[in-house]
Write a structure and sequence with these properties.
Number of strands: 7
Order of helices and strands: EEHHEEEHHEHE
Radius of gyration: 16 Å
Largest sheet: 7 strands, mixed
CATH topology: Aminopeptidase
Number of domains: 1
Number of helices: 5
Strand content: 25-35%
């Protein structure tokens, strides 16, 4: 198996005023929180959004592992729908001392390039900033961060920076060059 060099960039916002919202796209695009922890639905989103960009770390998770993660206080999944069809999602995961990670964010390939991503990222980031209002016992958010990498879409970094995220770390690591798993094996060309 061959390896590839993957650059990972970590970005952050340190105040709610850092957020620079995108305009809402035209049409019937709605963002709704998936309030019932559903391993099946979350795995569908993960595999469908990340299938062509080699998201593989959660593919081996058991149903119980998915449920355990989704039932942690403060973990939220916000889903963009275009005319009722899931188009993408943002997953928020609280850490210690008011730090919230946008752990996963992206759109299903068929919905990219339609201005949904900037709107979803804006909305998800705003929900990271007000997370403690929905979860008594969580610390007030003081920092929102995320990471992106050279395997992500070509517009990912630009979208994050246009929403007010600032770079704070860069790492380059060797990773196994795996085939794109798709939502099912072989769904996307390698």
């Amino acid at each position: 198996m061959t390896n590839i060099a993957v650059t990972t960039w970590s970005l952050e916002q340190t105040a709610p005023t850092d957020l620079l919202p995108a305009a809402a796209p035209e049409g019937d695009v709605r963002i709704v929180r998936a309030e019932v922890p559903s391993p099946e639905f979350s795995r569908f989103l993960y595999a469908s959004v990340g299938g062509d960009i080699r998201w593989t770390d959660r593919l081996g998770w058991s149903h119980a592992r998915w449920r355990e993660h989704l039932e942690r206080p403060g973990v939220e999944t916000w889903v963009a729908h275009d005319r009722g069809t899931p188009a993408g999602y943002v997953e928020l995961t609280p850490g210690d001392d008011g730090v919230v990670e946008i752990e996963y964010f992206g759109l299903i390939a068929a919905f990219r390039g339609r201005r949904i991503g900037g709107h979803l990222l804006s909305y998800g980031t705003a929900r990271a900033w007000d997370l403690a209002e929905r979860w008594p016992g969580l610390a007030t958010t003081k920092r929102v961060w995320l990471h992106t990498c050279s395997k992500d879409g070509e517009y990912a970094m630009d979208n994050y920076q246009r929403r007010g995220f600032r770079l704070f770390d860069t790492k380059v690591e060797e990773e196994a060059d795996v085939a794109t798993p798709g939502p099912w094996p072989g769904a996307f060309p390698a």
